[in-house]
Amino acid sequence: RHDEWDGIIHLAALARVSDCEKDPIECIRNNVLLTTDVLQQKFQWFILASTATPPVNYYGLSKNFCEQLAEYECAKSGAALRILRFCSVTGEGENPDKLIPRAVEHVRTGKTFLLNQSALPFEYADIDRVVNEIMVAAVDASYAPGSIGKPQHISDGHIKTYKQLMILAQHVANTNAQPA
Question: What's the rounded mean pLDDT across residues 23-37?
Answer without folding.
Answer: 97
